[in-house]
Amino acid sequence: MPCLNLSTNVNLDGVDTSAILSELSKTVASIIGKPEAYVMVVLKGSVPMSFGGTEQPAAYGEIVSIGGLSPDVNKKLSGSIAAILESKLSIPKSRYFLKFYDSKGSNFGWNGSTF
Q1: Which family does it belong to (predicted)?
Q2: Annotated catalytic residue 2
């Protein structure tokens, strides 16, 4: 049940967000080793955001997973997501943070129950 929640100050009007969501979903599933059927990606644009004292394109993300995260996996996720943000939204790799949460299944509700 990986969930990637990304916020950016980039305006997404006119951007093919479906392609970005699809690429992020496949990337997260592949790197974490979970079925893509359980991956959720949230992408919010036009979020008021300052990074380093400027409002140049930037992003903040959090990824939560029930298992599958480790220092090596986190590093791969960070690099791959940064590359997608840079190529699709022109957000420099140096202008985004990604926070990782490895959680227990009992902390997540789904399908009327918990994992």
Answers
A1: Belongs to the MIF family.
A2: yes
